[in-house]
Amino acid sequence: MTIDPKPIASRASWKGSTLDWRADALHVFRPDEIEEIDAGLQHLRGLGDLDLPEITPETFPLPTVGAYFARLRDELRWGRGFVLLRGLPRERYSADDMARIYYGFGAHLGAPGPQSWQGELLGNVIDVSDIEADPRGYHKGGRQNFHTDSSDVVALLCLRRAKAGGKSRIASSVGIHDAICERRPDIARRLYEGFRYRRMELDARFGEGVQVSEQPVPIYVARDGELSSYYMLNYAKMAAEHGFSTLSDFDLEALEEIQRLANSEEFHLDMSIEEGDIQFLNNRIMLHSRTHYEDWPEVSQRRHMLRLWLQMPSWPAMPAEQVLHTAGDRLLWRRQRRPGMEFPTAYIEDMAQYLREGRKLVAAA
User: Which of 159, 164, 226, 322 has its CA 20 to 30 A from that of 140?
Assistant: First the structure.
């Protein structure tokens, strides 16, 4: 069957050079909303020292703000695809209470899920490359390439800014898709055909055991007027490097064209996420990265974000041909999780202890 991709031309098809995100995608909490969040936190704390999975819309009630998150589901799906929440007073809350509030927001919006073989429900995004023996991308510093994550929605909360730099750089997958369809239909067809992906070894080992996709994973799938993108450049290159596929010069050109456009002044949008800010992205229609940053040597002072991966039960399922991390993987990963392991205070104390003792954190075999 001949693939003939067409532009989607939805509200999500935007260019960073022409979008005023402060007018289109910024929600600043009002004083009465902050009071409601305070009350929800006090209710939660009154129930005892609950672990993250016990933070639910029932244990963290938000009568008004919760209704906003219900509306946000549609905005993320049908609108621009992202939002930044601002106005949460970072200085009022401990790092662990910020984590509780943030996780509670996520529970009102969707279903938080594990992010790797370790089963963490809340990712600590911080440079610990001098501590971990084989750090993942979110545990390294510096610039990142554009990519998508393996969830319906990805969110970031800023606990601590970098010494300098470290902006969130985002781009519309739909806007880039539409441009490629119009400018390079040959590349668009290749991206719809897809590429084999090789994921991280431990994610496969502690999951269902499948490390390399059996079939090519389409970068783009369009159904009923909705686009779903799943773009992991490094996974495609790893599959080729390990002999599971061959990437021609044209294949590499097609894969790199997304990076080229996303990084261009025409398409990318830079956002400074301040301490206390929270960014939500529709992972199916957005690409994200970050700019280079300068950090502090002390672990306790380093740039520190918290990450959520949310599944959205009210949305149609992600196209099966784009699913790499399965529901079965996530169930198995959860077995590795220890209660409270993601709370930032305990996490930073553990990392600082390793650094003081000059030890390396090595993944379990």
Answer: 322
What confidence tens digit (pLDDT) does each residue in 78-109 have?
999 999 999 999 999 999 999 999 999 999 99
Per DSSP (E only), the strands in 161-277 are 164-165, 168-172, 220-223, 226-229, 269-271
Distance from C-alpha of 19 to C-alpha of 164, rounded to nearest angstrom: 25
Task: Just give the CATH number of 25-357.
Answer: 3.60.130.10
Is 365's pLDDT higher than 50?
no
- What is d(CA 227, CA 15) in angstroms, rounded to the nearest whole number? 16
Q: Give 137-159 pLDDT, tens digit per residue.
A: 888 888 899 999 999 999 999 99
Q: How far is CA 262 from the centre of its chain?
A: 17
State the Cα–Cα distance between residues 137 and 129, nearest whole angstrom. Answer: 9
Query: What span, in angstroms and rounded, lies between the C-alpha atoms of 117 and 140?
Result: 18
d(CA 321, CA 218) in angstroms, rounded, equals 7
Percentage of the chain lying above the pLDDT 70 cut? 98
Looking up tokens 């730099």, which residue turns up? 165
Amino acid of residue 278: I
pTM above 0.85, yes or no: yes
Amino acid at 290: R
For 258-327, what is the HEC assignment?
Answer: HHHHHHCCCCCEEECCCCCCEEEEECCCEEEEECCEECCCCHHHCCEEEEEEEECCCCCCCCHHHCCCCH
Count of other CB atoms within 10 angstroms of residue 64: 12
- Separation between Cα atoms, residue 17 and residue 166, nearest integer Å: 19
Closest CA to 268 of 197, 179, 193: 179
